[in-house]
Every structure is written in structure tokens, then in C-alpha cells.
Amino acid sequence: MSGVIEASHLTYRYGRTAALDDLSVTVPEGALYALIGPNGSGKTTLLQIVMGLRRPSAGRLTVFGVHHDSLTRQQRAEIGYIAEGQRLPQWMRVQELEAYLAPLYPTWDRALATDLRERFELDPQKSIGALSRGGQMKAALLCALAPRPKLLVMDEPFTGMDVLVKDELVHGLLETAGQEGWSVLLCSHDVGELELLADWVGFLDHGRLSLSESVESLRARFKRVEARMADEGAARSLQPAADWMSVERAGARVSFITAHGDVERDERLRALLPQATDVEIHDASLRELFIALATSASRRAVKEVAA
Amino acid sequence: MSALGELWHIVKKDVRQSKWVLGAFVVLAIAATLGAVSAENLAGGRLQLAAVLMIVTGPVAAATIVQTDSPTRADAFWASKPFRRSVMLAAKLALVAAVLLLVPLLGQWLGLIAFDVPRDEQASILLASAGMYGFVLLLAMFLAALTPELRSFLLAVVAFLIAALAMGIALSGDEGSAWGESGMRTLAGVIGLIGVVSLLALLYLRRGLRRVRTLGVAALILLLAGTVSSSGPGPSRVVVPDSARTAAGSPGISIEVRDTAKIRREGRFRLRITLTGASGNQRYRLDHARARFFLHNGTTTEMPLWVFGPTVLRAGNLVLPGVPTVHDDMERFSGPSADRDQVVLGDIRRAVSGGVDSVRVTGDLTLVRPRVFATLPLRTGASVLRDGQSTRVVGLNLDGTDDILRLSTKAVGKASSDQDWTNDAAGPKLYLVNEQRHEGIALQRTNSGSNMGLLVLPGASVHQGTVNYRLPDDDDPSLPTLDGAWRQGATLMLVNWEDGPSVPVSAASVPLPPEVRGARRGPPIMTGSASASLRAHR
Q1: For residue A223, how far is the Cα from the chain centroid?
Q2: Cβ–Cβ contacts within 10 Å for residue B313, how many?
């Protein structure tokens, strides 16, 4: 699989703490890769290394097939980046920010910039500092999208945006990324939005990648099983299997996530649920998967399954 | 976009972004320049305050310029954009150099021009100023690059100053050690400076460098060790040309020891030093004078002759151009001989009391030459501005019995203390001269007040103040009468006495009178003569 970003045995340490620990990941070309994981799992650090803002302690990273240290200016101009904590020049007006950045990008699309500004309802005369948090993210997004980048790196891009804009943005991104063939590496706590956007997902935890696969594959593999037991006692006495994640009990109902995609034909499951009166099987949502994976016991289980 | 275009693009942005602090800096620089070009102490020194404020504002402005596009912050906006990193560094340096360094340097230059400082001295002062302030700005840029925002920059500056002070104290008593050797210090300073410059460049050129703060602190410590502990140069001394040492028949000294009985009783004796072999219009100063006693018991002991420190010896009357006779200040210009009581204390007194065979006086005889740099009409308001010195007559009372003249002065230069009017030992001398009558009177300064200041930047110092003068004592029968006719043709002559070459001299008194020699008897007072000479300079 050729990747627009390829990290190999990447390690980054803050003192003695490893933010990234021997991480290897490939972001396929043209994919919208969502990086999810709990706080402090190393998502932002990885994105900053991709952007050359941090230098890894060990390992190798290539972007567009080139070592990230050797990217030409032209290649750097093909990467768009927005991050939640990025320090925008607060004193600049929106239109000044555009004018400041436009000459740096040979592919800067003024029409797209204007279109985005109007869609985001950004006042060109307003200074960045006078914008709300969401407004500032919109301005940053405008600057990242207007050059029509081949690779878009986004760290919590939806922070502070209202639902309508977020929805519009998500659809806009899907549409544009698909049309232009952009590759997107995105991390966000808003797993619900990621579900709409992503076609690849990586789960990062304590600097290690627990899984990295296409959403299609995840959907095929991870299922939510909801079983109605004969009575509450039966539900309470049910012993979960080692690979069940996010096991929940509510009265006579038991639900869990399993990594056995062919759960319908899983004899073991049938054996474990002899008293089930009704069993429903759904594709696990990304949100459900995130919660499941973020639980340490579940993580152990999924590793075993993934292995 | 070309590299130059990109540089200009960034500089324009930085100017707009930092317009308030840069504007404040430029306003302060203009105010400081106004103060620098003024011969007067304008606005009660407020313009001097402007120079101080400007100097302090500069590093803050440099830090602001750097931190607007921080090379170390991972969240810096520019870092994720396709700027040429070298151009970003160049833009920061260019803006700091163009505004924070060149603007005050221009003011400094105008100040030097206004004070008619000689051109070669102007260049040297400007170079020194650029070096000093450039170094300060570079350090500020470096500290700003290592710190995330202005508050932590200011804290870092305070920490740096405290560290500099602590290191200065710690290394001050280290003069004799290997570290105290200037070579080691210089090496540390050079390595530190190279480290600072290299790291600043690396921070921009290779983002995400690790351990930069540790390396930065190490570079700063080396820099501090190399600069803070460096002691200033020793007392200046004119290099003696070999030819000056060998000329025969040139000036030297002879000594005469008197009242030697007082050594044992009162711990003092009288010593007369006489200039020998000098031409009539030369002046000489005896520096570093010491007396060596050859004791009865075959040993020797030595003591400095402090009282001869600033004494100037002259062979004859002071000669100024067109003025063969000048009634001089006898305290400072003591004629061909200087006669002083020498105090002998402690161990030396005890040793000397045991019996002395002879005394040898050694020192450096330095030629002191007059240079008339200005002649002023004798009236209030008359002023002159030359050689870095402005002088204005602000009070004149030739009929009075007390002070007759009050001058407002301002001296500007590399080491303006050498030209400071209020510095009695080194400052210019003032003479009332009537050329038609070929007479002159050296005025005596009575009191003065002064303060030190800045021009615009460090590197050129300023001494300004007021000096009052009076005539020599009335009971001097040779003093001309300052009647209306004399005053009619009189001018004020401003003279700098400048050091020429110097040579070591020594003279011995052999043998000493019997009261010093103890039990042995000998002839009465004897004198010795010079053993080294100085070529006569005309």
C-alpha cells in the first residue's frame, strides 16, 4: 500500500515519557485517515512531527515519499495544516491574513478563499483576535483549504464550530477531498463527525497504534451484539468472553462489541448465549468502538483479536 | 515569490505587527538624538532618559519581533506554512538591524558630528556602539527564541542578569588562576558567542531541534564566563620608542634628600625631584614614582612616592603659541623642581630607621604637550564646539574678586573623561591670553559640578557640567593687571595637555646624610642625577 505519509518505528520522548513509542503507520494516498485516541495518546505529537514542528527521537517519517526533513518548499506548500492551539496572528484582519499567505502558495485559489469566507460568514474586515474561537478555526481552515493542498493535516479542526457549520464543513470536506483526490490526516474528539468523514481509522493509545484499518474493514469486523436474555438473573450471571468489549447490562438485556465479524456464524457466541431470547447484531459505530478501545481491558482484548 | 520578495513580505508584516513597540523605539531614538546633538543639557536630562529608555526598549522590541514567529514554539503559525526558514531568520535579523541598530547608530553619528568628534574617532565609536548594542540585541533575540512569550523572556533576562552578577562576583577573585588568564576567558567568550549565533540560526533553519534550551543555557554560561569576568585594561601607558631611551643629553631627574632626621622621629623626610636636561618649554609628568632605600644592613626596601602622582614638572615657563609668559597654576605646574614631604610608615620606617646608605628614585617621565583646540572671545555666550567638546561661557565677571568665569561644558567621545572639564587632573586648561601684550594667565578652577550620560548608544560617553574659574592669587607680583585695556585684547584659550612618549628614569642620592646613615658619619646632603633620559620633543 503506497502511503502519502509513512511512519516507521517513530518514537518521540518528552523527557522520560514516550509520547510516541515505536509507532509505525501508513496513511494511504487519497484516504481520509482519522486518528482517534484518548487525551495524551500522542495524536497531536504525531501530527506536529508530520508538519516538521517536532523532530522525532527515533524512527523515520516520509511525506509524499520524501523524508520529512527534506521536503522542498513546493512540497510543503502542498500541505495544509490547521490545529486547535495554533497561534494565528491576532492583529491581522481576515483579508490581510489571506493576502499574507496567498503569495506563498502557487496554487492559492482566490475564488475558493472567497467562497469559503462567505460560507463561513467571516467578515474580511474583522481582526482575527475579534473572532470567536470557532471563527478563528474557520479562518485557519480557510487558509488551509484555499491552496487546494494535496495533503491536509487537521488537529481538532471542529473545535468551537457550531453544528450547522460543522455539518457543512464535514460535507464540504468529503465532497472536495473526494473530487480533488486530497489525502487527509485528521484527529478529533468528535468521533461522530469522524465517522461521516473517515475512510481509514487509526487508534492511538499511549503512543502506540492499536489498530489501523479502513472503516469498511472495521465495520465488517466489529459488531455490536444486543441480546435479550430470559430474565435479569440470566443476564447478570452471563460470563463475558475474553474478546467482548464494552459489555453493558440493562435488566434482561446484554450488549457488547465483538471483533468477530462473522458473529452470526460464531458457534462460541451461540454457546455463551443459550438463554438469549433475541439477538440483534449491528455494525459497531466508530464512537462505540472508540469507547470500547479506550477501556484498557477492552484494549487488551482487541489486541489479542487483532493479532 | 523570490527570496528577497519573501523577506520584504515578512518584514512588512513584522513592522505592522510590532508597530507600537517599534514606534516607541524610534520616538525614543529621535528624542535621544535631539539630546545628543544639543550642546546643552536639554530638558533637565529628560532626553538622556530617552536614551536610557530607548536602550532598554530595543531588546524588548527585538524579542517581540522574534516571538511573533517563534522558532521554537510548535504552535507557531509560520512554522506550518511554506516560508523559507533562512529567509525568516534573515527577515528578523534585517528588521532588528535596520530599525533597532541603525536608527540609534544614525542618531549617535549625528551626535558625534554635532560635537565635531574627529572622523577616525567617529568610526571607532560607531563600531564600538554597533558592537555593544548589536551584542545586546543578539542576546535578546536568542533569549526570545528560547522562550515562548514576552513574560518568560523578561524573566529570562532577569535570570541572565542575576547570573551575570553572580558569575562576576564568583570570578572576580580569580585573577591569578588559569581561568583568570584572559586567553581562557576570551576563548570561553568566543565559543559562547559562536554557540549563541549558531543556535539562533539552527533554531530557525532546523525546526523541532531537541535540547535547544540546554544547549542555549550552556552557550550563555560560556558567553558570561568570557565577558562578565573580563577585567578592564590596566592603566594606559605610552609605548616608549627605543630611540627615545638612548638619546644622550635628554631630560632626566635628579633628587635631593632633606630633613632626613625626621624619618626616625616623625616618619617623614623631604624629597626634591628636579627635572634635568629638559628644554625650556617642555612639560613632564613623573608617573609611578618609587623610592628604593639601600639599607645599612645590605638589604633594600621600597615605597611608592604617592605625592608625586599628578605632579607636572617643567623646565621653564609655559609656552603657548604667541604667549611666551603665562602665569601658571603653581600647584599643578610646579616648575623644574617639585619639593614634597614623604611619609614613611610601618615596616619601611622601622627598616629605614636602622640606617640607610642611599636612596634611588625611579619612575616614568612622560612628556606632556599642550594642544590649543579653541580660542574664545571674552564675553558671555561665546561658545565653541570642537574635538568632541562643547564649551559655552555662561558667566563672566572680570571685576569681581571671586570667581570670574563660569563655563557650561559637554564632552563627548570614546573616553570623554579624558576631556572632562570638571576632571581637574585630565581636563582641558583655560588661559586668559592677551596676545598683543604677550601675556597669559592660567585660570584656576574653583568648583565644578558634572554628570555622566549617554550620547544615544553605549560606546561614546558624555560628561557635562559647569566649571567656575578664578584668577591666581593677587599677591603674585608678576600677575598682570587686568585693567580695561588688557581685557580689551584678551581671549580665552582652551588647551588640552596631551601625553607624549614616556621613559623610565631613576636617580640616586649617594650617600645619605649622617642622621639617616645611623652611626656612620658622612658628608652633608648630596644629590644624585639622572640615569635614564628622554629625547627632547619640540
Answers
A1: 20
A2: 25
Comparing B303 with B385, the larger pLDDT belongs to: B303
Give residue-wise pLDDT tens across range B227-283.
665 444 333 332 333 333 333 357 788 888 877 677 777 888 788 888 777 665 567
Q: Own/partner pairs for A290-298, CB < 8 Å, 24+ apart?
A: A290/A36, A290/A191, A290/A203, A291/A246, A292/A222, A292/A245, A292/A246, A292/A257, A293/A203, A293/A205, A293/A210, A293/A211, A293/A245, A294/A37, A294/A38, A294/A205, A295/A245, A295/A246, A298/A245, A298/A246, A298/A257
Q: How far is B452 from chain A (nearest CA, A)?
A: 42
pLDDT tens string A49-68 = 998 888 888 999 999 989 88
Residue with cell 514567529: B69
* Average pLDDT taken over every residue of chain B: 75
Residues of B in contact with A83 (CB under 8 A): 75, 80
Instruction: Give the DSSP H or E segment for B314.
Output: strand B312-314
Q: In the β-sheet with A223-229, what is the strand arrangement from edge to edge?
A: A244-250, A253-258, A223-229, A276-283
Q: How far apart are CA A142 and CA A154, in angstroms?
A: 12
Q: For residue B222, what are the CA distances in angstroms to B175, B180, B194?
A: 17, 14, 10
Segments in B38-118 forming alpha helices (H): 46-67, 85-95, 102-114
Place of cell 588647551: B495
- HEC string of B181-245 equals CHHHHHHHHHHHHHHHHHHHHHHHHCCCCCCHHHHHHHHHHHHHHHHCCCCCCCCCCCCCCHHHH
Nearest to B82 among A53, A89, A104 (CB): A104
The CA R_g of chain A, rounded to the nearest whole Å, is 22
Q: DSSP of B169-180, one letter per residue?
A: HHHHT-TTSTTT
Cβ–Cβ under 8 Å, residues B440 and B493: yes
Cβ pair B255, B508 in contact under 8 A: yes
- Within a 13 Å sphere around the CA of A236, how many CA atoms are in the beta-carbon half? 4
Nearest-Cα distance to chain B for A197, in Å, is 23
Cα R_g (chain B), whole angstroms: 30
Which residues of B lie closer than 8 Å to A, measured between beta carbons?
Answer: 1, 5-6, 9, 13, 16-17, 68, 73-77, 79-84, 206-210
Element (H, E) at A46: helix A43-50
Peptide bond before residue B511 is cis, with ω within 30 degrees of 0: yes
Q: What is the pLDDT of residues B28-77, one digit of tens each?
A: 999 999 888 876 655 456 667 888 899 999 999 999 999 999 888 888 88
The answer to whether the Cβ–Cβ distance between B82 and A77 falls below 8 Å is yes
Q: Which pLDDT band holds residue B136 (cuts at 50, 70, 90)? A: very high
Q: How far is CA B244 from CA B352, B371, B414, B504, in A?
A: 35, 21, 29, 10
Answer for the pair B316, B280: CB distance below 8 angstroms, yes or no.
Answer: yes
* Residue A185 near residue A35 (C-beta atoms within 8 A): yes
> Looking at this predicted complex, what is its ipTM?
0.81
Higher-confidence residue of B401 and B332: namely B401
A193 min Cα distance to partner chain B (Å): 24
Cell of B99: 530599525
pLDDT tens, position by position, B335-385: 566 677 778 878 888 887 777 778 888 888 887 777 777 888 888 888 887
C-beta atoms of B74 and A73 within 8 A: no
The packing angle between helices B119-146 and B46-67, to 10°, is 40
Q: What is the pLDDT of residues B167-208, one digit of tens each?
A: 777 766 655 555 555 677 777 778 888 888 888 888 888 776
Q: Which of B5, B79, B84 is closest, CB to CB, to A73?
A: B84
The pLDDT value recorded for residue B40 is 65
pTM of the predicted structure, to 2 decimals:
0.71
Substitution target in A50, A53, A81 with the highest count of B β-carbons within 10 Å is: A53
